Amino acid sequence: MADTWVIVGLGNPGPRYEATRHNIGQMVVDELAARRSESFRAHKANARVAETWLRPGGPKLVLAKPNSFMNVSGGPAAGLARFYDVAPERIIVVHDELDIPYDTVKLKTGGGHGGHNGVRDVAKALGTAEFPRVRVGIGRPVGRQDPADWVLDPFGATERQTLPILVSDAADAVEMLVAEGLVAAQQRFHAPRA
Q: Site (Stabilizes the basic form of H active site to accept a proton): which residue positions (predicted)?
């Protein structure tokens, strides 16, 4: 499909994980669906999917939330790529990023997975790491907390005050990446805030 983009929000399934840092990718995909008054439905690729458009007459967006756990996100992502006949460069993976400060959005294509098992599994399943990523900063835990526990904790009270803005910024980054390309989106979202 010529102008189709698959946007995969990484996370873990079920109510236990909905509000956790690891699920911010799915929160962003929820925001993109809400902006278009779309709801998700089951898809045979083991994901929940909402099909919509960037704007009327614009590129088609397939918003997807894998039903699998984070570490095995690759199967649903690859299944959606096959179903919609979309090349890896048109699969945008939205995920949490420990190595970026909270309240920051960064974009890149390719490169390593930075220890993120969801990204690692998507790259393995697609057979390439050359797919665009919207990386949503969650920061590292303070003190001795294990990062593996940190990502599965809900956002703290202070973080929750600005979380809707962060999710909205990340959704804006996805839209700009589709509309104007990676470099334009990087120039906007990587610039220091005024």
A: 96
The per-residue pLDDT for 145 is 85
Neighbouring C-alpha atoms within 13 Å toward the C-beta of 89? 4
- The CATH homologous superfamily for domain 4-190 is Peptidyl-tRNA hydrolase (3.40.50.1470)
> Rounded to an integer, what is the distance from CA 126 to the centroid of its chain?
16
Side-chain-side CA neighbours of 162 within 13 Å: the count stands at 10
State yes or no: 83 annotated in a binding site: no
113 is catalytic: no
Q: Is 117 annotated as a binding residue?
A: yes
Q: Which of 22, 43, 95, 116 is catalytic?
A: 22
Average pLDDT over residues 63-85: 96
Q: Domain spans of the chain?
A: 4-190
